[in-house]
Amino acid sequence: ATCGHGCKYGECMGPNKCKCFPGFTGKTCNQDLNECGLKPRPCEHRCMNTHGSYKCYCLNGYMLMPDGTCASSRSCAMANCQYGCEEVKGQVQCLCPSGGLQLGPNGRTCIDIDECSTGKAVCSYNRRCVNTFGSFYCKCQLGYELKYTSSRYNCVDVNECVTNTHRCNLHAECLNTQGSFQCKCKQGYRGSGFDCA
User: Fold this and answer.
1) Residues 6+ apart with CB under 8 A from 178
2) How far is residue 169 CA from its own chain's centroid?
3) Which helix (H) or strand (E) holds 116?
4) Over the stretch 110-126, which tens digit does the pLDDT of each residue have?
5) Which residues contact 195 (CB under 8 A, 6 or more apart)?
6) Within a domain: residue 99?
7) Which residue positions does the secretion signal occupy (predicted)?
8) What are 67-106's pLDDT values in tens digits?
9) Domain carrying residue 100
10) Which pick of 79, 123, 146, 148 has the fewest CB atoms within 10 Å?
11) Is residue 62 in some structural domain?
12) In the chain, how many domains are there?
């Protein structure tokens, strides 16, 4: 089976037919499935969509059970947690619905961890890290675009000279470089390439 456009988060099952891994959707399995919008809803109280998955959390005064339901809890009600809580050996602890969030100094509210600045995020050399609330993603560096080549997704250099996105002077030649471009004034002209006289 060959899939011309590839299956980003899935596998090729037939001519241009992708079978997506759980949590992903789309013709090429490149879109995150928002499980929180499914019917029946996967969580009893509140749902937070994450990349390829989701997290359940409960309203204040309820405790998240292993099956995703919410059970009333007096001790949780007293803890006043932002995203529900759990009891560990009789101790009440507030929960954060994502690994990219951490409990704030008050022990009740969740604050974002910037994976891009802490170095927790690992993006390949030609990608840059973009922080989001509770997570992050890797985006192609400026001058590169995401393309499906040799059976996988890669960040490929944008040829600004071909796409006509350069700002070279009318009397200059455009020279493509990795991730960028250069402008050189044509014979008989002098200048920066952006200005030629």
Assistant:
1) 143, 157
2) 38
3) helix 115-118
4) 999 998 898 777 887 77
5) 169
6) yes
7) none
8) 777 877 777 777 788 887 877 777 788 888 778 899 999 9
9) 53-112
10) 146
11) yes
12) 1
